[in-house]
Amino acid sequence: MNRFSIVKLVPKAVVLPMLIALSFTLQSCYYDVEEELYQNTPCVTENVTFSQTIQPVFKRNCVVCHTGAAGNGGIDLASYAGASVVAKNGRLVGAVLHASGFTPMPQGASQLPACTINQIKAWVEAGAPNN
Ligand code: HEC
User: Fold this and answer.
1) Ligand 1: does its nearest atom lie under 6 Å from the Cβ of 95?
2) Burial code of 19-53, b = ≥16 C-beta within 10 A, e = fewer?
3) I need a surface site. Which of 5, 48, 74, 110 has the fewest CB within 10 A?
């Protein structure tokens, strides 16, 4: 084997493992919130809690307009106390379902995913507990 064939061989031996390693690295950066990628993923509506399920939804989609006593429509979704009021008077479910007679929420954005709506309904039907 002369000097030139070694030079030609080395890149192949090095580049291939590097590509494989790189593809794994890129995969780990892949956006993979399962629920948002695959709408067919079974929707879990058991063990829905205010702190783990409902509050994060409000934080992402609602508190920008509904925080404190001055929240839009006088509705405060940043606290359990405020959220439980609209949960128990039926306005929360009506609004996220876009049911007639209610102002559709979140205002100015697309309707929440069906699974999220079902989780809100499950929490409300369980009596909107502070869990
Ligand atoms: C861009 C601002 C904005 C966002 C975001 C928003 N709301 Fe509202 N919301 C309002 C306004 C303004 C009203 C009062 C509308 C009215 O009285 O007709 C309101 C009213 C409501 C009502 C009362 C509806 C009724 O018919 O009585 C509920 C319940 C509600 N919002 C829940 C939510 C929930 C839950 C989210 C998040 C998923 C959300 N809102 C996101 C602005 C917003």
Assistant:
1) yes
2) eeeeeeeeeeeeeeeeeeeeeeeeeebeebebeeb
3) 110
CA distance 111 to 98: 8
Distance from the alpha carbon of residue 107 to the mean position of ligand 1, in angstroms: 6
- With a 6 Å cutoff on the Cβ, whether 120 touches ligand 1 is no
**Residue 38 confidence (pLDDT):** 55
Three-state DSSP state, 90? coil
Instruction: Give distance in angstroms: CA of 15 to centre of ligand 1.
Output: 55
pLDDT at 8: 64
Q: Average pLDDT of each block of 10 consecutive residues along the chain (131 residues)?
A: 60 65 57 56 92 98 94 95 98 98 97 98 98 97
Residue 2, burial from CB neighbour count under 10 angstroms (0-12, 13-18, 19+): exposed
DSSP string, 22-59: HHHHHHHHS---HHHH-TTSPP--TT--IIIIIHHHHH
